[in-house]
Specification:
Order of helices and strands: HH
Structural class: mainly alpha
Helix content: 40-55%
Radius of gyration: 31 Å
Mean pLDDT: 74
Largest sheet: none
Strand content: under 5%
């Protein structure tokens, strides 16, 4: 049986360990599908993406542990009562603006 597709299918035996190779994209006549390569050269490899994710998780863990250490040492921070007063002033100003307008 003749095959009219310009992109040839793999002729590797069924038990072969090699996956079928995808040829480069070809221009096809109207109405015909074009087979694209399995992976574009512009996309990063999956192993690169996994390595990037692992490094990101490690950096995040390091930042969190550094913050915990700073909190344990008691470095100067804004006291809670100051934040509470600031929130009350903002909410009071907003409420006054709504009621008085």
């Amino acid at each position: 049986m003749a095959h009219d597709d310009p992109v040839a299918e793999s002729t590797a035996p069924a038990g072969s360990a090699q996956p079928p190779s995808a040829g480069p994209a070809t221009s096809a006549a109207p109405g015909r599908s074009v087979e694209l390569p399995l992976r574009s050269a512009e996309l990063p490899l999956r192993s690169d993406m996994v390595g990037w994710a692992v490094q990101r998780v490690r950096r995040r863990r390091n930042r969190i542990s550094a913050e915990i250490e700073r909190n344990r040492r008691g470095e100067p921070v804004v006291p809670t009562w100051v934040l509470t007063v600031l929130l009350a002033v903002i909410l009071g100003g907003w409420l006054a603006l709504v009621v008085l307008s």
